[in-house]
TrEMBL record:
UniProt keyword terms in alphabetical order: ATP-binding, Nucleotide-binding, Transport
The keyword DNA-binding appears for this protein: no
One Pfam match: ABC_tran
InterPro entries membership: AAA+_ATPase, ABC_transporter-like_ATP-bd, ABC_transporter-like_CS, ABC_transporter_ATP-binding, P-loop_NTPase
Domain ABC transporter: 2-232
Annotated GO MF terms: ATP binding; ATP hydrolysis activity
Full protein name: ABC transporter ATP-binding protein
SUPFAM superfamilies: P-loop containing nucleoside triphosphate hydrolases
Length: 303
C-alpha cells in the first residue's frame, strides 16, 4: 500500500506541491491525472525516494520514505517518464549492475535479468547497448529493473506517452495483471481516457493540489450529454446569461454549460448581442469531466 501524506515541495520560491494526500490500496490501480506541470512527477519521484519532500511523507507498506528509505524504496518499483540510462552498457550487464542495489548476487541477477527482460519483450536485445534502445524499449527496460526486487507497489509515470499501440497495450495488460496479484499501482497520465480501462479510482491534481478523487464508475456517470459549448467575444456578460440555462464555466476560451436546461436557439438569440461566434451541443467525453473539475477548482481559488 502507498500512503501519501500531506506532501509539500518547494523549488526555490515556487511551491510545486501544496499538501498532497491520498492512498493507493493493495489490489488497486489509481490513475493520477493532471495537466503538464500539475505536480505528478514531483509526487511520484518523492514516493520513489529519488527526491525529498519539503514536508510531509510517503509510506510504502508502512515504511516511511524519508525516515526508513531503504526498506520503503525496496518495496516500490518506479518506471519514470523519461528513463535515463548509461548508453554504452549492454542491457543484461546493466540489469546485473542495477540489481546489485537490491542485494542480488551477480549470478542470480543474470538469471533473473534473462527472465525479466524476456517478460518485458526484450529477449532479443539483452546484449545490445541501451543507447540503441527506443524510448519505448527504455521504458520496458526500466520496468524489468523495477521488477527485480519483486515489490508490492508500483509507480508508473506517464508510461504510455510516446508508445506505439502494442507498447500501450503491453503496459495496460501488465498493470491489470499486477492489480490482480494484489499490488498497489499508481499510474499517472495527463489524459483521463488513457487510464479509463485500468483505473479503479482517479486522483486529480492541479497546480500542486488534489482537486478531486473519484471512482472510475462515478466518472463514467458524470459523462452526460446535456452540455452546451459557446464561443463569444464578451465572456463576462455571456456568462451571466448562460447561468440561466445551467452551470457555466470558461474552459479553454469557451463557455461550457453543464446540466443544460432549456432551448439552445433561445440561448443563441440571447448571446448574439455579446458577439456569439459558435454554439452547439458538446459531445461530452471523459476529458470534459476533467476540464470541468479544473474549472471548478480555478473558480473556488479565485473566490
Ligand atoms: N527541479 C525543479 N526545479 C524547479 N521547478 C521544478 C523542478 N521540477 C519540477 N518543477 C516544477 O514543478 C511543477 C510540477 O512539475 P511536475 O514535473 O511534477 O509536473 P507534472 O504534472 O509531472 O507535469 P508533466 O506532465 O509535464 O511531467 C512544474 O511547474 C515544474 O516546472
Amino acid at each position: 500500500m502507498i500512503r501519501i501524506v500531506n506532501l509539500y515541495k518547494k523549488f526555490g520560491d515556487f511551491l510545486a506541491l501544496k499538501g498532497v494526500s491520498f492512498d493507493v490500496n493493495n489490489g488497486e490501480v489509481v490513475g493520477f491525472v493532471g495537466l503538464n506541470g500539475a505536480g505528478k512527477t514531483t509526487t511520484i519521484k518523492i514516493s520513489a525516494g529519488v527526491n525529498f519532500p519539503t514536508s510531509g511523507d510517503v509510506e510504502i507498506d508502512g515504511y516511511s520514505i524519508t525516515k526508513d528509505k531503504r526498506k520503503a524504496s525496496r518495496n516500490v518499483g518506479w518506471v519514470p517518464e523519461l528513463p535515463n540510462f548509461e548508453p554504452d552498457v549492454k542491457a543484461l550487464d546493466y540489469f546485473v549492475y542495477l540489481a546489485g542495489y537490491y542485494g542480488i548476487s551477480s549470478q542470480e541477477a543474470k538469471n533473473l535479468g534473462k527472465k525479466l527482460l524476456e517478460e518485458v519483450g526484450l529477449s532479443e536485445w539483452m546484449n545490445v547497448k541501451i543507447g540503441k534502445f527506443s524510448q519505448g524499449m527504455k521504458k520496458r527496460f526500466a520496468l524489468a529493473v523495477s521488477l527485480a526486487g519483486n515489490p508490492n507497489n508500483f509507480l508508473f509515470d506517464e508510461v504510455l506517452n510516446g508508445l506505439d499501440p502494442a507498447g500501450m497495450q503491453f503496459f495496460k495488460d501488465l498493470v491489470i495483471k499486477m492489480k490482480n496479484e494484489g499490488r498497489a499501482i499508481l499510474f499517472s497520465s495527463h489524459i483521463l481516457s488513457e487510464v479509463e480501462n485500468i483505473a479503479d479510482r482517479v486522483v486529480f491534481i492541479h497546480k500542486g493540489k488534489i482537486i478531486g478523487i473519484k471512482k472510475m464508475e462515478d466518472l463514467r456517470k458524470m459523462v452526460s450529454t446535456n452540455i452546451v459549448k459557446a464561443v463569444v467575444n464578451n465572456y463576462n456578460e455571456a456568462l451571466k446569461v448562460a447561468e440561466k440555462y445551467g452551470k457555466p464555466a470558461i474552459v479553454n476560451g469557451q463557455i461550457i454549460i453543464s446540466d443544460f436546461k432549456g432551448d439552445i436557439s433561445e440561448l443563441s438569440s440571447e448571446l448574439k448581442p455579446y458577439g456569439l461566434i459558435e454554439i452547439g451541443y458538446e459531445r461530452q467525453n471523459l476529458e470534459s469531466v476533467f476540464f470541468q473539475l479544473i474549472s471548478e477548482s480555478e473558480k473556488s481559488e479565485s473566490r
